[in-house]
């Protein structure tokens, strides 16, 4: 399969960043210009340090009155600076080659040229350009990205999104690694929402968006963080946020007070009740999750997810974008992969349940409440009947797709693995498993409930295999009705 870099136009559409103007540092011959203009940029600044390449850039953009080509090396200081010319001119840099030579032996320095260095803040002032007119910054300067950002502190205040090359190893001598870029941009309220390394695992491209923009555009994950197992939950939640997902945790008031300082990146919402009296643990009712969705101001296109707090997400940006598109008119359902540690991606698919659902916000008005990980359009919340299923109890992951199906909501089963779960001993009680199994049977096969209740009253060992039979029958029905799809099906659409 051919390598596919990140696409800035798709990223801006996904995060609702409207291009006022674009500044591209390291523009080469302006290959991305048409894309910027298609995005609606009213003005584009293309900056190229190499004088010979700049001449070609000037020629290629001279017919555009709204494009400004500039010949500078943008960095953290002003003054003369040495540009190291590479046999592959797009790899020329103000930094010496290091491990880049190990990956591409033919990528050699073939000369040097002195060029004028300047900070981006200084350049805009010198050219009398208003930084407020430019809200997208692109950087492709071969390891010097942090130097350029360090000289752009005023400009960053008006930038909404940054598309930049990043290094995961020291390919150029002294170059900043992605963690340093993340840390620097966090100080300016940016969050990395996408990373791709299509050509080699040591380098790639990343996309950062201002958090106030993200708050308006993100898919929102609803969960209930447990007051224990913090290391695993922190890793899981970090995986959600690394995909640009907003995280809301519903907990009782005591847990909110305890957890807020442990998870500062999560927004907590205190519910007025929990299922402690019914199940012995302060779990959250799905009715309260749906009530939360319905009480939020509708965006008209909101996608929500419900995920148990120990599920790790590992999904390509494009995969999430497609899932969100598919969730506009249906319930996208995923199963988890059981793994031994968070670094693994290969494991056994758990076929006896579901762990990720995507849906529109209004679906909550059609369906009841229960799931490990679900993503959905906000309209789904308007279709949900009352229920006493809880997040963290068994059977809830069967209940939601059952109700969705009966309300005429299309079911879409994603076979691409995106949800991962670190194996641990089962920690629910058999009596509660049977109790909620009978509640599910009341919806699925109500004629069997009297038989099951009698077996429950007799404490009969026959009840469990009969409930397992209910699971088998439901799963067969689900897979008969659900459209099976994979990211591979959508990749080149």
List keywords for this structure.
24 strands, single chain, 493 residues, eleven-stranded mixed beta sheet, 18 helices, alpha/beta, Rossmann fold, elongated, disordered C terminus, Spore Coat Polysaccharide Biosynthesis Protein SpsA, Chain A, seven-stranded mixed beta sheet, 26% strand
CATH topology of the largest domain: Rossmann fold
Number of helices: 18
Rg over CA atoms: 26 Å
- For the record, the CATH architecture of the largest domain stands as 3-Layer(aba) Sandwich
Helix amount: 25-40%
Morphology call: elongated
**Unreliable spans:** 367-373, 489-493
Mean pLDDT: 88
Structural class: alpha/beta
The major pleated sheet works out as: 11 strands, mixed
**Topology, number of strands:** 24
State the end-to-end distance.
15 Å
CATH superfamily of the largest domain: Vaccinia Virus protein VP39
Strand percentage:
25-35%
């Amino acid at each position: 399969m051919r390598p596919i870099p990140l696409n800035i136009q798709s990223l801006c559409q996904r995060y609702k960043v409207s291009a006022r103007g674009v500044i591209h540092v390291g523009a080469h011959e302006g290959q991305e210009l048409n894309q910027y203009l298609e995005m609606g940029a009213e003005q584009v600044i293309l900056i190229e340090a190499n004088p010979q390449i700049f001449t070609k850039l000037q020629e290629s953009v001279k017919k555009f009155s709204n494009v400004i080509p500039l010949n500078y090396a943008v960095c953290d200081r002003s003054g003369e600076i040495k540009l190291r010319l590479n046999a592959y001119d797009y790899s020329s840099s103000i930094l010496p080659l290091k491990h880049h030579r190990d990956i591409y032996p033919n990528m050699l320095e073939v000369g040097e040229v002195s060029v004028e260095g300047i900070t981006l803040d200084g350049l805009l002032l010198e050219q009398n350009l208003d930084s407020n007119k430019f809200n997208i910054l692109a950087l492709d300067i071969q390891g010097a990205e942090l130097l350029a950002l360090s000289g752009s502190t005023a400009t960053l205040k008006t930038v909404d999104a940054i598309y930049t090359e990043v290094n995961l190893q020291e390919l150029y001598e002294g170059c900043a690694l992605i963690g340093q870029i993340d840390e620097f941009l966090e100080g300016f309220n940016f969050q990395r929402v996408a990373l791709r390394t299509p050509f080699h695992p040591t380098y790639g491209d990343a996309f950062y968006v201002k958090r106030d923009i993200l708050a308006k555009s993100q898919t929102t994950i609803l969960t209930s963080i447990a007051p224990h197992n913090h290391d695993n939950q922190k890793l899981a939640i970090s995986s959600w946020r690394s995909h640009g997902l907003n995280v809301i945790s519903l907990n009782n008031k005591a847990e909110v007070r305890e957890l807020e300082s442990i998870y500062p990146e999560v927004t907590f919402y205190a519910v007025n009740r929990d299922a402690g009296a019914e199940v012995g643990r302060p779990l959250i009712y799905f009715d309260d999750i749906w009530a939360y969705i319905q009480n939020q101001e509708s965006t008209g296109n909101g996608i929500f997810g419900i995920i148990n707090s120990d599920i790790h997400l590992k999904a390509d940006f494009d995969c999430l974008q497609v899932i969100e598109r598919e969730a506009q008119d249906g319930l996208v359902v995923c199963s988890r992969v059981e793994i031994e540690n968070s670094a693994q991606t290969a494991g056994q698919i758990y076929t006896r349940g579901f762990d990720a659902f995507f849906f529109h916000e209004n679906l909550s008005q059609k369906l009841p409440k229960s799931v490990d990980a679900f993503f959905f359009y906000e309209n789904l919340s308007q279709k949900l009947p009352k229920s006493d299923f809880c997040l963290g109890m068994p059977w809830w992951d069967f209940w939601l797709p059952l109700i969705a199906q009966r309300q005429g909501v299309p079911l879409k089963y994603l076979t691409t693995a995106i949800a991962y779960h670190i194996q641990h001993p089962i920690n629910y009680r058999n009596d509660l498993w049977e109790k909620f199994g009978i509640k599910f049977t009341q919806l699925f096969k109500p004629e069997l409930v009297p038989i099951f209740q009698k077996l429950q009253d007799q404490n009969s060992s026959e009840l469990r295999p009969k409930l397992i039979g209910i699971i088998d029958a439901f799963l067969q029905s689900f897979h008969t009705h659900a459209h099976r799809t994979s990211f591979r099906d959508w990749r080149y659409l």
